[in-house]
Specification:
- This protein has about 400 residues and is of the alpha+beta class.
- The chain has three domains: about 20-105, no CATH class; about 110-155 and about 180-300, 2-Layer Sandwich (Nucleotidyltransferase, domain 5), CATH 3.30.420; about 300-390, no CATH class.
- It has helices at about 10-15, 75-85, 145-155, 180-195, 215-235, 245-255, 275-285, and strands spanning about 20-30, 35-40, 45-50, 50-60, 70-75, 85-90, 95-100, 110-115, 120-125, 130-140, 200-205, 240-245, 295-300, 325-330, 330, 335-340, 345-350, 355-360, 365-370, 375-380, 385.
- The strands form four sheets. Strands 1, 2, 3, 4, 5, 6 and 7 form a seven-stranded mixed β-sheet that branches. Strands 12-11-8-9-10-13-21 form a seven-stranded mixed β-sheet, with helices on both faces. A five-stranded antiparallel β-sheet has the order 19-18-17-16-20.
- Helix 5 links the parallel strand 11 (about 200-205) and strand 12 (about 240-245).
- Helix 6 packs across helix 7 (about 275-285).
- The longest helix has 21 residues, at about 215-235.
Length: about 400
């Protein structure tokens, strides 16, 4: 087992790369344009044109009895940890602190705006004073194809001399198809995670509607969407109060603020999806007419092959290699591990008594030959996160570039 000291600078750098709650941008006039960087007390600053943009980081806070409190700044969190008043920890790759001393439990109203989408989604955590977090998440889009592959594999096994599951005819599918349910379950997972980090009072969701045309084939294709969102609203209501706004209402409010939404949905920028989620959250709590935080946190769910028996294509001789599992040499797949060479990574597949390790930021496979004894378990994990470069300040204003 590889030993890593608590004061190891390499480990510290790897842990510092994990995301925190968000950064608030504040605009201040400067004497002269410059591209130099400055360092203030607990803030990172940069000069852009005629404005000085100061970024202040926020960290989620839990009380000594595990109750969620209002976030604090990174500078204050560092002082608490250094003095022993708080203990640092990670929750879903988010850096947090837990108080070791009794504190007040007064919290402000916090709303979470949710902009659902077919491939990408936007989430914003905001109070009247600050915008704490913006998330651009990838949607779960692979379940439909996976179900089809599973069906074809079962059909193929019935024609070979091998154990197979008998066909089950005329089964009732239930209220939700697997692909639709997986999409809404992913949204619920993100919402539940945010409730463990922030004292959320309300979820404001952009209500999507499927327009019916009186044609059975057309209407049937959109019925799972309507059923899925109804199930999602019911489950979301168990976490906090739920408000819904139509897409036209969101469009109207966004125009009143003079904001514009980008046309490139796959772009990793605030104006792609989070501008709508920010509008939804600000509609409930108020406090701003322009976004005070444009920094994004990218979240991508990991795809696991839990029950697949073997690969589709056989090797020479007709043998099919095993494929799909929940564990790799004792590590649950997706778990975060600390490797002496590759740092903080997550566990992938296994082959020849070796483990594949993947990058947290890009998902790229770093190695296939990691030894079990060299990997130190950190925590369980089911998604990966990244922090892209924030967009230029003022780019959301209508008529600007």
């Amino acid at each position: 087992m590889a030993k890593v000291g608590s004061k190891d600078t390499a480990v510290r750098r790897q842990l510092d790369r994990l995301p925190v709650a968000g950064k608030t941008t504040m605009e201040m006039p400067t004497k002269s344009p410059s591209s130099r960087s400055a360092s203030l007390d607990g803030e990172q600053t940069r000069v852009t044109g005629s404005r000085l943009i100061a970024s202040k980081t926020y960290v989620p806070v839990l009380s000594s009895d595990r109750e969620v409190l209002m976030p604090t700044t990174a500078a204050r969190a560092r002082k608490w940890v250094k003095s022993g008043k708080a203990t640092p920890f990670f929750r879903g790759q988010m850096f947090c602190v837990r108080m070791n001393v009794p504190t007040g439990k007064v919290v402000q109203p916090i709303a979470v705006g949710i902009d659902p989408g077919s491939k990408w989604e936007g989430y914003t955590v905001k109070s009247e004073s600050h915008t704490y977090l913006n998330i651009q998440a990838d949607a779960v889009t692979w379940v439909k194809d996976a179900v089809e592959v599973r069906r074809n594999m079962r059909k193929a096994r019935r024609s070979r001399k091998t154990p197979y599951r008998a066909n089950r005819k005329n089964r009732a599918r239930g209220c939700l198809p697997p692909s639709t349910k997986a999409r809404w379950q992913w949204k619920l997972r993100v919402a539940s995670w945010l409730c463990k980090l922030f004292p959320v009072d309300c979820f404001v969701v952009e209500d999507i509607k499927a327009k019916t045309k009186g044609r059975p084939k057309w209407d049937k294709a959109f019925s799972p969407l309507e059923i899925g969102k109804t199930w999602f609203y019911a489950e979301l209501g168990k976490l906090a109060w739920v408000e819904t706004l139509s897409g036209y209402d969101t469009f109207t409010i966004r125009n009143q603020y003079g904001l514009k939404k980008g046309s490139d949905k796959k772009k990793q920028a605030f104006e792609s999806h989070c501008v709508d989620s920010w509008v939804l959250a600000n509609w409930f709590v108020g406090g701003h007419i322009t976004p005070d935080n444009e920094r994004l946190m990218l979240v991508t769910p990991l795809q696991f092959h839990r029950r697949q028996l073997h690969v589709l294509q056989p090797t020479k001789g007709g043998a099919r290699k095993p494929y799909g599992s929940t564990c790799s040499l004792g590590f649950k797949r997706g778990s975060l591990v600390l490797h002496p060479k590759w740092g903080i990574t997550y566990v992938g597949g296994t082959s020849n008594n070796r483990i594949s390790l993947h990058s947290l930021e890009t998902g790229k496979r770093l190695t296939q030959k990691a030894k079990e004894l060299d990997c130190r378990f950190v925590t369980y994990n089911t998604w990966r996160t990244a922090l892209p470069v924030p967009s230029k300040a003022g780019s959301l204003r209508a008529g600007t570039v």
